[in-house]
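User: Is it possible to get a 3D structure for a protein together with its bound compound? The compound here is zinc ion. I've pasted both below.
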Amino acid sequence: MKLEFIPLYEAFEKYEDRCPICKIIEQEEKVYCERLLEDEILKDPEMYIKIGQTNFCRYHLELLNNSYDKLGLAIALKANISYKLQQIEEMSKTLKKKRRKIEKEKCLVCKYLRERDAYHVHILLDILESDKDFVEKHSKGFSNLCFHHLDVLIGLAKNITPQIDKIIELNKSTIEKNINDLEWFITKFDYRFHNEPWYDSKDSIERALKLLGGGYYD
Ligand SMILES: [Zn+2]
Ligand SMILES: [Zn+2]
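Assistant: Yes, that's possible. Here is the predicted structure of the complex:
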């Protein structure tokens, strides 16, 4: 097996109740955010400029703030707000002249995660190519792919192979089940159905949120 296949094999092995790609991305997000505040990164001139110029999204600002490394965070924030002050000063100087439209930098962490998404999905496509039983073996994990990763997978696939078709079918039945369970959840609020059992509807909101939870990047 190719070395780069291992993380996806492990993720599909370990996490079948939710999107395995989301699980990998979450781990990488945590590592990247911690790494961003490390001395070695902040002292790297190129990275320091990138951290200064980025526009962290609200979610990643919060995630960075959850870090124990308050020194690293303070250095990163100082670089970031100093650059923003400089931009405001420049803007106010050119205000009376013709104002040029400045392309707003995206959140550094979001940008990284988008690249990682594409990387993992490309590897997954390679796995599907070389291991014809992979979908069959991990049908539960595939049935729980989130909308975002299903979308990336279909978008990056050169053509809809029988395996991808199977993945779409698996997902469709999960989504349809989720819709039916939400429907029953809603029905249960009607007093006439008060004494009816919940069946599988109790966690239907939680499952819908998992389906919608991938790819929140800006
Ligand atoms: Zn996902
Ligand atoms: Zn972000």
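The chain has one domain: 17-212. DSSP finds twelve helices and no strands in the chain.
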